[in-house]
Write a structure and sequence with these properties.
Layout: E1 6-7, E2 14-15, H1 18-28, H2 35-45, H3 58-66
Antiparallel strand pairs: 1-2
Helix pairs in contact: 2-3
Length: 71
């Protein structure tokens, strides 16, 4: 059960269902991700925390540059 919604980088939608998120994560491995759309939507929700799972911080740095309240 998800307690925190996730912005889906594949479609740019806010996902709150665990099974839907698992299905989408599998698809994200082979399809183009929409990071600009995610950044735009994230700005609308004004998150306090941005969690990036990956080897580097490029996406986090882009989010912080446009949303200084994110840590």
């Amino acid at each position: 059960h998800m307690t925190v919604p996730v912005l889906n980088a594949l479609t740019g939608e806010l996902i709150q269902d665990t099974q839907a998120m698992l299905d989408i994560l599998a698809k994200e491995l082979s399809q183009t991700l929409q990071w600009d759309k995610v950044r735009q939507i994230a700005s609308e929700y004004q998150p306090d925390v941005w969690l990036e799972l990956g080897p580097k911080r490029e996406l986090t740095n882009m989010m912080i540059a446009t949303n200084p309240n994110i840590r």
